[in-house]
Structure formats: structure tokens, C-alpha cells
Amino acid sequence: MRFFRTQHWTFHILLGVFLAYSRMDYLMSLILPVVFCQQAFLFASNDYFDREIDAQDPKKRNRNVLSSGELSLKKARSVLGILVFASVALSACMGIIPFLVNSGWLVLAAFYTAPPIRFKKRVGFDLLVHGTTVLSFPFLFAMVASGSYTVRNGFIGVVLVCISLLAQVLQEVRDFETDSLIERNTVIALGLQRSFGILLVILFVPLILSSFLVVTGRISVVFSIVGSLCLCWMYDLHRTWRTGRLTEININAFGDILRRTAVCMVPVVLAWIAW
Amino acid sequence: MIIYLALSSLLLSLHALLRGRTGLSASLLILAAGAMLVQMVLRGREEPPG
User: Fold this and answer.
1) How close does chain B come to A224, measured CA to CA in Å?
2) Closest approach of chain B CAs to the CA of A228, in angstroms?
3) What is the ipTM of this complex?
4) Domain range for A34
5) Are residues A193 and A144 in the same domain?
6) What is the domain count for chain B?
7) For the whole model, what pTM was predicted?
8) Which of A225, A231, A261 to mutate to test the interface with B (most CBs of B within 10 A)?
9) How many domains does chain A have?
């Protein structure tokens, strides 16, 4: 389980899948194991290909079971093979489209860290691939597998891709000093100041989209919470920008998100009752 | 934290106004203005004397 790093993704795959498809039936019994194998493969292959880089950092060496030597390379390869086989076989039971989407995603996820492509060190691609593979994919896969293409689901998909992009840019900003010595990514190529501009653009997309869809009545007023949170994050970013301590940014801290969400829910609930 | 209440109320007020719910929009705008006022008072108290 430490090789799969389940603590990083169990909650968001359950949330993602249930947001797209909430019925407990035969299809759900296939979707859940497939997304479990996908995420386990993503994190395990990341640790497999990054084992030498992680070994140089004392904190990452303890986290990566391959760098610390707790798991042999032969066993790791067998586990990765089983995960690929299981997800491909189960997705084939759902039909041709889920099978193709799953297979394409596995290739993309593997080459996120695997040489020679290694998307995570390619400027622009690191964000694009992270945005579509991490966090957002369980939802997108469940949407494709169940064929529930609605405006609401499209909106949630865009929001999840934006959250994934936001998380990646914030991680690159946080690791800016250490990563700039080892490799190149979008934040290192653009510099910290311009990366803050990218963060604002990423937050602007769900803000505008949620406002447009709520005002035109295509999604529930409850989704205004997305716009409210984006506005709050933009305010926090602006404040951090003014202080100049950009690498100390910590707007993805779990406690902060909970507090901010709770406060933003107050007017949203009031408006929802009155609407 | 109060500034988040003000910002989200402001956004909701705009949504309500664009949907033609002027009464709701005005109520939310008052809530936003109140929150901003409280935020300003609290920030004023934080200033060091002199």
C-alpha cells in the first residue's frame, strides 16, 4: 500500500466517481476497481521511475519504498504489470470506448515520469498531463464509462482539471528552489512572477464558467460555491504576491480549504433557500 | 476569514441580479457590505498605536 500511496488519492477517486455516477450497480462494481488500479499505477510508476532522484532527497527517500530498498525492482515490475493487466481487462468488460480511454490514459500516465518522453520535465506538458491524469481522471473515466454527458458533469470535469492544474503549479512553486537545480518545468521556465499569473488564469476559468452557467440556469445555484472559492483564492494569491514571499504559499492546506468553504457556504445556502 | 464571506456574498449578489432576483441581490449586497465593514473595523484595530 505504501508503494501505491493510497493516502494521496483514495478520497478523491471516491468523490470523483460518485459525482459522475452514483448508482450502486454492475457498472459501478467495474468502475471502482478500474480507477483504483489506474491511480495505484500512476503513483507506483511515478515512484518506480523517480527512484534514483528520490534517493537524493532524505524526505522523499523515506517515502519511496524503492529508493529506501524496502521493495525490490523485480517485485515492483510485477505489481505494475498486474495493475495494467487488471485495469485493461476490467475496462474491456465495459465496452470499447472505456477500454480505449483507459489504455490511452495508462500510456500517458506511464510517460508522465518514464524516460525518454518524461512529460513532467517538459514545459507546458507537465501541466497539461497532470491536469488530465491526476485527480480529475477518476471523474472523467466514470463519466465516459457511464455515458452521462451532461452540462453539470462537463462543468465538474472542467473544475477538477483546473484544481489538478492549480495543485501542480502550486507544487512547482513550492519546490522551485530545489527543482531548479535538478530539472526544468513550466514554473522554472516562466519564473515565479509569471507563474502567479498562470494561477490567476486557472482560477478565472471556473469563476467565469460557474457564473455563466448559474446565471443562465443550466446548473444549480449551489455551484456558485466554486466561483466564491475561486474569488477567495484569487484574493489570497494577490495578498501573497504583495508580500513577495511567493515560495511560502500554502493555499492548498486542507484546514484552510475547509474553513474557506464553510464561510463561503453561508451566502450560498442563504441564496439557495431564497432562490 | 470575514473577507471570504464578503467576496462570496458579492458574487452571489451579482448572480442573483443577473437572474432578475433583485430582492435577493440587494439582501446579499447588504450582507457583503456588512462583512466588509466588519473586516475594515477589525483591520483598523490590528494597526499598532501611533
Assistant:
1) 7
2) 5
3) 0.84
4) 1-149
5) no
6) 1
7) 0.88
8) A231
9) 2
